């Protein structure tokens, strides 16, 4: 099962490699990882997308909490949350495809951020499955390059992750 | 007053009350060694290999209950220390290891003797630090000691670049613990859970207390004893828990697990409520969880480390907290509500257990003149009145020591239980003897293990550390050979030593007393003589030539359940196997298990 973990961690060199090392050492997989400093400069926040059954996720959460520099770990799936990922995708766009891609971009609320006479580069944000769905619609043949940030997630409503 | 980084380290260690530092000098720590020489604040023990320095510091911690300290140089010094660090990590031993590092301008340039120590040790430390700012040095050492000793203890590495040891700064050592916002171990158990646990245990028909090294690390031996007495339940301990409960006590069933006793393993398997305290259901204890859980049982698990709970088996009542506190609180509840298991149920349960115990699974034939390794351990226990400190290496001799020496108190048994590191025995004995000079210290080892750190005989001579090395020499890597015999159709691949040194001459070359003992009738006198030499300040190296093909039984093979032991010959002859399979056909009804 796909799970999104949100982790507050000391903003120190090496802290992130402890987290990543934990996953590899215990043979858990990171599907995506996004991390940046928070409004408090001493803290970083990571969003880790992983998968596993209840026991695996429980172990991951406990092991993360055990790291000295980890302050808090929250499994976002435990209640409602918002998830966003940013993707830049470069498409081979010639002839009638050009109009088609513009329409598609509009449907997915994407923006064209770079154009040449043979390519479009489109920016799309949304939940990971929305981005997957866009790529599927466009079709492999037209995709020249993609780059994605990995998911960032936040709890809905009053629910916050703070120290 | 301004001090150099090196002086700050020495003063900080002094402020922590450090008595011994075990180490080995080198380029990156020259400043620190100069400061040690000049300030003369503690005793430094120069080992012959960094691995041994860390093992000795580890043993000092295991014996004294304080934090052990080791000091090594950068690069190869640090990598040599890694096995020692990983060993301490596996057994949750509080330890601070200071490693030298190349100067900060050289870090990342593949400089001479540079290695990414923080990176290499990350998976096998509780935490580690690279100190690049001299102002951070004293607070970091303070934090290192704090983290090493609190919560679930463990080794902490402090990596200090050479230029930081040379820089100058004002020194003041923090008096109070430093607040670390991201590190707040839970030590008090949840009262609701504790009540639930007491009730669950009291409702048991076939209860068992299963304890591990946490009892010893958490100084909870007395509480364990009180709880076991109060409830009347049987208890069993892990290899790491030996000494946590007196071995000669009727309520103790012996060690459990791969080489546990018949009665302990069957009782663990057949129990309906298991109270696990400071133990982690290691694979050497329950083998495969699915087999362990085949017999329905409720599990209560107390551990200071939440990640140890429900890692291998599902747990009905998890309690995160210091075992000493939690057990004390449980005892309080039991007393108040008289919540202990029903007497009649217990009597039945004990009858079954006594029946298993009467099979005498550790019996062996000592009538021949060929020395049985078990016999040596048994005699050693006799002449030391079960009270010596015993260290051991890894292999058959380790299991014989665990099975046949009746440990009576915590911190009497030092062993690499988690990582299973060959070569710990001699450095462990060194560290133990320094921590407890008034105790008799014996290292029970094999001819394979001892050769992994035998150079420490030199350290023992330099510092006059009078211990006894008891080598159970069967000319084989015995435990590996045992597996080859049982599971690899006797193919003795690379387990036979056909060029062993003359250990007597070797011991003498290092300045010690060497003895070779080849007959059963000579064992006792030799051990007594060794003890005498010891007490006169000499190290004795005893080379016992033992039965080559002796195996360790009972044994739970790979993938087997605790009730599927391979039994010693004398039990097999009396149809013991059918007895094992008869576990459903006893004087209690397994269907009524809650």
UniProtKB/TrEMBL annotation, chain A:
UniProt entry keywords in alphabetical sequence: Amino-acid biosynthesis, Branched-chain amino acid biosynthesis, Transferase
Keyword Amino-acid biosynthesis: yes
Sequence ranges assigned to domain ACT in this UniProt record: 4-78
Enzyme Commission designation: 2.2.1.6
Catalytic activity: 2 pyruvate + H(+) = (2S)-2-acetolactate + CO2
Family matches, as InterPro entries: Acetalactate_synth_ssu, Acetolactate_synth/TF_NikR_C, Acetolactate_synth_ssu_C, ACT-like_dom_sf, ACT_dom, AHAS_ACT, AHAS_small-like_ACT
Gene Ontology MF, one: acetolactate synthase activity
Domain of life from the UniProt record: Bacteria
Enzyme class, UniProt record, top EC level: transferase
Pfam families the UniProt entry points to: ACT_AHAS_ss, ALS_ss_C
Record-stated family: Belongs to the acetolactate synthase small subunit family.
Subunit description: Dimer of large and small chains.
Matches recorded under PANTHER family: ACETOLACTATE SYNTHASE SMALL SUBUNIT, ACETOLACTATE SYNTHASE SMALL SUBUNIT 1, CHLOROPLASTIC
Name of the molecule in the record: Acetolactate synthase small subunit
Gene: ilvN
From TrEMBL, chain B:
A molecular function GO annotation: acetolactate synthase activity
Main EC class the enzyme belongs to: transferase
E.C. number: 2.2.1.6
CDD domains for this protein: TPP_AHAS (cd02015), TPP_PYR_POX_like (cd07035)
Domain Thiamine pyrophosphate enzyme TPP-binding: 393-534
The protein's annotated pathway: Amino-acid biosynthesis; L-isoleucine biosynthesis; L-isoleucine from 2-oxobutanoate: step 1/4; Amino-acid biosynthesis; L-valine biosynthesis; L-valine from pyruvate: step 1/4
Thiamine pyrophosphate enzyme N-terminal TPP-binding domain span: 4-119
Cofactor binding note: Binds 1 Mg(2+) ion per subunit.
Cofactor: Mg(2+); thiamine diphosphate
Keyword tags: Amino-acid biosynthesis, Branched-chain amino acid biosynthesis, Magnesium, Metal-binding, Thiamine pyrophosphate, Transferase
Reactions catalysed according to its record: 2 pyruvate + H(+) = (2S)-2-acetolactate + CO2
Boundaries of every Thiamine pyrophosphate enzyme central domain copy: 194-329
Family (UniProt): Belongs to the TPP enzyme family.
Stated name of the protein: Acetolactate synthase
């Amino acid at each position: 099962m796909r799970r999104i973990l949100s982790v507050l961690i000391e903003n120190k060199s090496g802290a992130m490699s402890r987290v990543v090392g934990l996953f590899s050492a215990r043979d858990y997989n990171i599907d995506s990882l996004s991390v940046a400093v928070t409004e408090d400069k001493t803290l970083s926040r990571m969003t880790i997308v992983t998968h596993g059954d209840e026991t695996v996720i429980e172990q991951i959460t406990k092991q993360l909490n055990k790291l000295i520099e980890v302050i808090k770990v929250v499994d976002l799936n435990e209640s409602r949350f918002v998830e966003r990922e940013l993707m830049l995708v470069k498409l081979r766009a010639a002839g009638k495809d050009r109009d088609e891609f513009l329409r598609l971009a509009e449907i997915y609320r994407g923006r064209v951020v770079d154009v040449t006479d043979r390519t479009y580069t489109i920016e799309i944000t949304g939940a990971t499955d929305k981005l997957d769905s866009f790529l599927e619609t466009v079709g492999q043949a037209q995709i020249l390059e993609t780059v994605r940030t990995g998911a960032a997630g936040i709890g809905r409503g009053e629910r916050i992750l703070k120290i | 007053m301004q001090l150099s980084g090196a002086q700050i380290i020495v003063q900080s260690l002094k402020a922590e009350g450090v008595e011994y530092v075990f180490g080995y000098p080198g380029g990156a720590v020259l400043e620190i060694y100069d400061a040690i020489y000049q300030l003369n604040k503690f005793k430094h023990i120069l080992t012959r290999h960094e691995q041994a320095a860390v093992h000795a510091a580890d043993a000092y911690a295991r014996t004294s209950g304080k934090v052990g300290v080791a000091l090594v140089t950068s690069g190869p010094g640090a990598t040599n220390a890694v096995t020692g660090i990983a060993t301490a990590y596996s057994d949750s031993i509080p330890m601070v290891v200071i490693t030298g590092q190349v100067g900060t301008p050289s870090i990342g340039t593949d400089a001479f003797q540079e290695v990414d120590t923080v990176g290499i040790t990350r998976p096998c430390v509780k935490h580690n630090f690279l100190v690049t700012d001299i102002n951070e040095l004293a607070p970091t050492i303070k934090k290192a000691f704090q983290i090493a000793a609190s919560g679930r203890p463990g080794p902490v590495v402090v990596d200090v670049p050479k230029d930081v040891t040379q820089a100058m700064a004002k020194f003041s050592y923090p008096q109070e613990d430093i607040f670390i916002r991201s590190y707040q171990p839970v030590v008090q158990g949840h009262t609701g859970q504790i009540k639930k646990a007491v009730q669950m245990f009291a409702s048991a028909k076939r209860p068992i207390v299963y304890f591990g090294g946490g009892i010893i690390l958490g100084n909870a031996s007395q509480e364990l004893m009180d709880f076991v007495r109060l409830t009347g339940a049987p208890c069993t301990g892990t290899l790491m828990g030996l000494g946590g409960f007196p071995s000669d006590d009727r309520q103790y069933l012996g060690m459990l697990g791969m080489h546990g006793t018949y009665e302990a393993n069957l009782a663990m398997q057949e129990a309906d409520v298991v109270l696990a305290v400071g133990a982690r259901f290691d694979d050497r204890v329950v083998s495969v969880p699915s087999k362990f859980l085949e017999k329905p049982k409720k599990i209560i698990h107390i551990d200071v480390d939440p990640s140890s709970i429900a890692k291998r088996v599902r747990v009905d009542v998890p309690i995160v907290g210091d075992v000493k506190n939690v057990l004390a609180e449980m005892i309080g509840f039991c007393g108040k509500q008289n919540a202990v298991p029903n007497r009649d149920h217990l009597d039945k349960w004990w009858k079954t257990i006594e029946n298993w115990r009467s099979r005498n699974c550790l019996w062996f034939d000592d009538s021949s003149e060929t020395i049985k390794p078990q016999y040596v351990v048994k005699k050693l226990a006799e002449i030391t009145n079960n009270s010596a400190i015993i260290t051991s290496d890894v292999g058959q001799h380790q299991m014989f020591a665990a099975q046949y020496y009746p440990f009576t108190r915590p911190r009497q048994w030092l062993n690499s239980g988690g990582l299973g590191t060959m070569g710990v025995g001699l450095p462990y004995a060194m560290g133990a003897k320094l921590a407890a000079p008034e105790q008799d210290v014996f290292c029970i080892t094999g001819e394979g293990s001892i050769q992994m750190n035998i150079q420490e005989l030199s350290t023992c001579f330099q510092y006059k550390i009078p211990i006894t090395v008891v080598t159970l020499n069967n000319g084989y890597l015995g435990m590996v050979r045992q597996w080859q015999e049982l599971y690899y159709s006797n193919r003795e691949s690379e387990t036979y030593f056909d060029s062993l040194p003359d250990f007597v001459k070797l011991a003498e070359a290092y300045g010690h007393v060497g003895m070779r003992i080849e007959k059963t009738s000579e064992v006792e006198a030799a051990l007594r003589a060794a003890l005498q030499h010891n007490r006169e300040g000499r190290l004795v190296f005893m080379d016992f030539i033992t039965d080559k093909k002796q195996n360790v039984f009972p044994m739970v093979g790979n993938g087997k359940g605790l009730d599927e032991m391979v039994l010693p010959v004398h039990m097999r002859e009396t149809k013991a196997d059918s007895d094992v399979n008869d576990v459903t056909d006893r004087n209690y009804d397994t269907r009524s298990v809650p």
